[in-house]
Design goal:
With about 190 residues, this protein is α+β, with helices and mostly antiparallel strands. About 15% of the residues lie in helices and about 45% in strands. The chain contains 3 helices and 13 strands. The chain has helices at about 1-25, 90, 140, and strands at about 30-40, 45-50, 55-60, 65-70, 70-80, 95-100, 110-115, 120-130, 135, 145-150, 155-160, 160-170, 170-180. The strands form 3 sheets. It has a 5-stranded antiparallel beta sheet. Strands 6-7-8-9 form a 4-stranded antiparallel beta sheet. Strands 10-11-12-13 form a 4-stranded antiparallel beta sheet, with no helix packed on it. Residues about 1-30 and about 35-40 have low confidence and may be disordered.
């Protein structure tokens, strides 16, 4: 009887997911796709991205981010240890994505780990074409309220009354402009 109830629960969960997908028009993002998989315990949110013709699926675990290529483990991204930092896994499971953050044409990966003092904090990993692995980016991960404009190749951030525009120079993240929040600020910055 338990097996029948569990099977019915899974079938219902899948039907709800398909209904939601159909109601949303089945829209897809060209860079990445978010999907859900029904299990008997919880719904697992995944993100799919492609780097160097390898399709990767990311799953947020409490110990690490698991990147898989099909059934094979591609890489486990360890969470860095930051004093006093607490990861809000419920928040994180809904806020992660493959996205080219250093504008080299390869899909990097970010994970929003929660809000702290009104600011969204992130862990970011950049794909290293030489090692064929993702490397943790201290510079990107130190930014708050991160957003990326791939077309303009600008990274935006805000913190402590300032807005910032960043770019990459010789592989280093650099500040292009900063604005005090009391100044007239270009609309795209906010």
């Amino acid at each position: 009887m338990k097996k029948i109830v569990t099977l019915c629960s899974v079938v219902i969960a899948i039907a709800v997911i398909i209904t939601c997908f159909a109601a949303c028009g089945g829209n897809k993002n060209d860079d990445a796709t978010t999907t859900t998989e029904a299990t008997t315990e919880e719904i697992i949110v995944t993100q799919v991205g492609t780097v160097e013709d390898v399709e990767l699926t990311a799953v947020i675990e409490e110990e690490y981010v698991l990147l898989k290529n099909g059934d094979e483990i591609f890489q486990k991204l360890a969470y860095p240890i930051k004093k006093g930092l607490v990861i809000d896994f419920e928040y994180a499971k809904n806020n992660f994505k493959f996205l080219d953050m250093n504008f080299d044409g390869l899909a990097d990966f970010y994970l929003a780990i929660g809000e702290n003092d009104g600011n969204v904090e992130f862990f970011c990993w950049l794909y290293n074409a030489t090692s064929k692995q993702y490397d943790y980016s201290i510079s990107l991960s130190s930014l708050k309220n991160l957003s990326v404009d791939a077309d303009e190749q600008i990274i935006y951030s805000s913190d402590n009354g300032f807005y910032y525009e960043y770019g990459w120079v010789d592989g280093q993240l650099t500040v292009n402009n900063s604005y005090d929040k009391t100044e007239t600020i270009p609309e795209k910055v906010t």
